[in-house]
């Protein structure tokens, strides 16, 4: 029989991380609540990252999207154009491989790959460790390319100033409606691969409407990293954020 009040037992794992097992009272559902303590710890570390980046005058930008929607392609072009004027650095997260870090290597840009060995998102501790491995002297913008995933990164604050969510024309117009948390958390939503919109029969107006419905406060940009269309607005948004706007 369940007891009348919830029974909460705290455990420590081998790393000292705390988790709780909660047995609710009148309701006989058994709940293992791992998420809240994990996120609390992450939020504390994220705040420490944010303080550190601000103190160093670095704008941290977290890029989130499903796999293949064009995060690395956007950064490649951004580093070659915007990065020539403003010193940038990149942390890039993937489950395995350093392919993206190789793509992003530029003489003038410090880059580090974080391989999560199976984790589906970056967390604040990984970003802190990654940043320790970069020469951030003089860096104004730190881009953090998250693991390709439209669900889990939504819950993990990395200490960024701006969260940018990408939606590509190849994914379909409905994704903001199907995956609302990540779009709700965005400061900027970028519709990517606009050069493919016509051949795909992509309904851009419907996609923009869906983004607006889920993320009414977000700035929306449309770009093609392939043709360069819309990139100037992206650089202007970064410039405004650097200026505190
Ligand atoms: N036509 C076109 N192709 C693009 C554009 N942006 C990216 N691509 C292509 O889309 C594919 C995936 O792009 P990536 O930049 O690797 O995507 P990603 O979001 O970094 O992928 P993950 O790191 O695996 O999550 C590549 O083949 C790119 O060349 C674009 O604007 N237009
Ligand atoms: Mg990538």
Structural overview:
It is a single chain. This protein is of the alpha/beta class. The chain has helices at 35-55, 71-80, 82-85, 99-104, 124-132, 175-178, 180-184, 197-200, 204-214, 231-242, and strands at 7-12, 18-23, 31-33, 59-64, 88-94, 111-115, 141-145, 162-168, 188-192, 219-222. The longest helix is centred in the first third of the chain and has 21 residues, at 35-55. Helix 1 packs parallel to helix 5. The protein folds into two domains: 7-33, no CATH class; 57-242, 3-Layer(aba) Sandwich (Rossmann fold).
Query: Which runs of at least 5 residues are low in confidence (pLDDT < 50)?
Result: 27-31
Distance between the termini: 58 Å
The overall average pLDDT, rounded, is 90
CATH architecture of the largest domain: 3-Layer(aba) Sandwich
CA radius of gyration: 20 Å
CATH C-level of the largest domain: Alpha Beta
Strand order of the largest sheet: 6-5-7-4-8-9-10
Query: How does the overall form come out from the CA principal axes?
Result: globular
Q: Give the structural class.
A: alpha/beta
- What is the CATH topology descriptor of the largest domain? Rossmann fold
Topology, number of strands: 10
CATH superfamily of the largest domain: P-loop containing nucleotide triphosphate hydrolases
> What pattern of helices and strands is seen along the backbone?
EEEHEHHEHEHEEHHEHHEH
Our count of domains comes out at 2
Q: Strand count, sense and closure of the main sheet? A: 7 strands, parallel
Number of helices: 10
Query: What is the helix content?
Result: 25-40%
């Amino acid at each position: 029989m369940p007891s009348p009040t919830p029974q909460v037992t705290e455990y420590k794992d081998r790393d000292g991380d705390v988790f709780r097992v909660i047995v609710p009272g009148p309701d006989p559902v058994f709940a293992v609540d791992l998420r809240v303590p994990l996120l609390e710890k992450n939020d504390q570390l994220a705040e420490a990252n944010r303080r550190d980046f601000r103190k160093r005058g670095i704008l941290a930008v977290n890029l989130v999207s499903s796999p293949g929607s064009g995060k690395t392609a956007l950064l490649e072009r951004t580093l070659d154009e915007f990065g020539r004027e403003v010193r940038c650095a990149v942390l890039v997260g993937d489950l395995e491989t350093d392919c993206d870090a190789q793509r992003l290597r530029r003489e003038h840009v410090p880059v580090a790959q974080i391989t999560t060995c199976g984790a589906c998102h970056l967390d604040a501790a990984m970003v802190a460790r990654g940043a320790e491995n970069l020469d951030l002297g003089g860096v104004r913008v730190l881009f953090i390319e998250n693991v390709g995933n439209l669900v889990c990164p939504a819950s993990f604050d990395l200490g960024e100033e701006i969260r940018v969510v990408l939606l590509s024309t190849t994914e379909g117009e409905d994704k903001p409606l199907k995956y609302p948390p990540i779009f709700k958390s965005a400061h900027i939503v970028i519709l990517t691969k606009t050069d493919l919109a016509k051949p795909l029969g992509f309904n851009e107006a419907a996609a923009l409407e869906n983004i607006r419905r889920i993320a009414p406060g977000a700035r929306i940009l449309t770009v093609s990293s392939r043709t360069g269309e819309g990139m100037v607005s992206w650089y202007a948004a970064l410039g405004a954020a650097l200026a505190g706007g």
